[in-house]
Design brief:
With 379 residues, the protein is of the alpha/beta class. The chain folds into three domains: 50 residues, no CATH class; 200 residues, Rossmann fold (3-Layer(aba) Sandwich); 91 residues, Rossmann fold. It is 36% helix and 16% strand. Helix 3 links the parallel strand 6 and strand 7. It starts with a strand and ends in a 7-residue tail after the last strand. The structure holds pyridoxal-5'-phosphate. Pyridoxal-5'-phosphate binds next to helix 3 and helix 7.
Length: 379
C-alpha cells in the first residue's frame, strides 16, 4: 500500500523522495508517514499477517515499502514477549518484557534503521551519515553494509570502546566527538550538507518511526490482538514511544484493537527532559543541562520530537519517571535473574515500573510491558 508524508506539527503535506523534516523554515518539525487505512480491511490484514513468516516486514501493508520493492533486511523483528515473575510489589500484575536484544545487531535500533535505510536507498541515497550513542550507529553500519553503501558515524568520545568496535566491525567510518549526542547531530548535519550523504539522525527523516512501530504491532499480536494496559519505555530521542503511539492509533483505525494503553517514559535522573516537561504540563521540553547518565541511549538532552512524545504520553493517560543509574543497573540484574539479558536501558524500565507501581499507577490485574531495548552484550 502506498503512503504520504505530512508534518507532525503543522500537518503540511510533503513530497516523498529523500524527505527530511517539514520544509517550512518556521516549522522544521518531524514528518510522519500516513497510510490510507480506510481503504484496508483490518480483519483481512490480520489474517494475512498471522499467516506470514518472518520479522517486521510481515506488516508491510502499513510499512513504507511499495509492493514491488524489497526491503534491506537482516531478519530483524519477531522478538519474544516474555512473561516474567519478579514478585514483591509486582505481585498482582502480569509483567512482560519485549526482548529487543535478539535483533541482528542486538538492539531495537535495527528496526528503525532497517526501515530508514530501505527507504533511503530506494530513493537514491548512495552515502549515509548518523550521530549515535552507539546502538543506532551499529544498526546503521550493518544495514548500510547490507545495502552496499558507505556509512559515516559521529559518536561521543566517551562511547564505550566495545560499542565503537561493534560499529567498525560493519565497516563504518567513525568519527569520535568531544561532546554529547547533540554535538554529534550538528556534525552529521554539516557532513551531510557538505558531501550529500543522507542524514539518518533521529526524526530528521520519517521512517525510523515506521520501523520502531512494529514492536507494538508484535506486542498487540502476541497478546491476542489486545492492547497492553501500560508500557514502560526507556526514552531518549523518542522514536520508540512515538512509534508505539502511532501503532495503537493505526490499529484502532483498522478496528484491530479497542483498549487503551498508558505510555510511561523512563529517563535517568541525570537527564530527564521529557519526564520534567510532562510533570510541568509543558508542550515542549527544555533541553537538559549537563546531561549525565551511564545509560548512553537515554542521554539525549533535547529531542526534536519532544512535542510528539509529550502529546502521546498525555493523551494516553500515562506519565514519566526518572530513575538513578544505580536503580537501572539493579533493574538489569533483576531482569538477568529472570533470564533476560538486559542492557542498562532495559533495567531502567524495571526500576521505573517499580516506582510507578509504588505510586499506584500500575494496578492489580493489569498487563504491563517493559522494553528491553538492547542486549546486555551490546555494552
Ligand atoms: C538501548 C537503548 N534504549 C533506549 C534508547 C532510546 O530510544 P528512543 O530513541 O526510541 O527514545 C536508545 C537510544 O539510543 C538505546 O540505545
Amino acid at each position: 500500500m502506498s503512503w504520504r508524508l505530512e508534518c507532525g506539527l503543522c500537518e503540511r503535506p510533503v513530497a516523498r523522495g529523500l524527505a527530511t523534516v517539514c520544509p517550512d523554515p518556521d516549522c522544521s518539525k518531524p514528518l510522519l508517514a500516513r497510510y490510507d487505512l480506510g481503504a484496508l480491511d483490518g480483519e483481512a490484514l490480520r489474517r494475512a499477517w498471522t499467516g506470514r513468516q518472518g520479522g517486521m516486514w510481515r506488516f508491510r501493508e502499513i510499512m513504507p515499502v511499495e509492493p514491488s520493492e524489497d526491503p534491506v533486511t537482516l531478519g530483524e523483528g519477531g522478538t519474544p514477549l516474555l512473561e516474567i515473575e519478579i514478585g514483591g510489589e509486582f505481585e498482582g500484575l502480569t509483567l512482560m518484557v519485549k526482548d529487543e536484544g535478539l535483533n541482528p545487531t542486538g538492539s531495537f535500533k535495527d528496526r528503525g534503521l532497517c526501515a530508514a535505510v530501505t527507504r533511503a536507498v530506494h530513493e537514491g541515497a548512495t552515502d549515509l551519515v548518523i550521530p549515535s550513542a552507539g546502538n543506532a550507529g551499529a544498526a546503521l553500519a550493518a544495514y548500510a553494509a547490507r545495502a552496499g553503501v558507505p556509512s559515516r558515524l559521529f559518536i561521543p568520545e566517551d562511547t564505550p570502546e566495545g560499542v565503537a568496535r561493534r560499529c567498525e566491525h560493519y565497516g563504518a567510518d567513525i568519527v569520535r566527538v568531544d561532546g554529547l549526542i547533540d554535538e554529534c547531530g550538528r556534525l552529521s548535519a554539516e557532513y551531510g550538507a557538505e558531501t550529500g550523504a543522507f542524514n539518518i539522525s533521529t526524526l530528521k527523516e520519517p521512517y525510523r518511526i515506521e520501523g520502531k512501530k512494529t514492536m507494538m504491532l508484535e506486542i498487540v499480536e502476541a497478546l491476542g490482538w489486545r492492547a497492553p494496559d501500560a508500557i514502560v519505555y526507556p526514552t531518549g530521542g523518542g522514536t520508540g514511544l512515538i512509534g508505539s503511539a502511532k501503532t495503537l492509533a493505526e490499529l484502532r483505525e483498522l478496528g484491530l484493537v479497542d483498549g487503551d494503553t498508558r505510555l510511561y517514559a523512563v529517563q535517568g535522573t541525570g537527564c530527564a527532559p521529557i519526564v520534567r516537561a510532562h510533570a510541568a504540563g509543558e508542550t515542549y521540553a527544555e533541553p537538559w543541562r549537563n546531561a549525565s547518565t551511564e545509560a548512553w541511549g537515554l542521554r539525549v538532552p533535547g529531542a526534536l520530537g519532544d512535542f510528539l512524545m509529550l502529546e502521546a504520553i498525555r493523551e494516553s493517560g500515562g506519565g514519566g519517571v526518572a530513575v538513578s543509574d544505580e536503580a537501572m543497573k539493579d533493574g538489569a540484574l533483576e531482569l538477568g535473574a529472570a533470564g533476560v539479558g538486559a542492557s542498562i536501558e532495559g533495567g531502567a524500565t524495571l526500576a521505573g515500573a517499580r516506582e510507578l507501581r509504588r505510586a499506584g499507577e500500575l494496578r492489580d490485574g493489569e498487563t504491563v510491558v517493559l522494553f528491553n531495548t538492547a542486549h546486555l552484550l551490546t555494552y
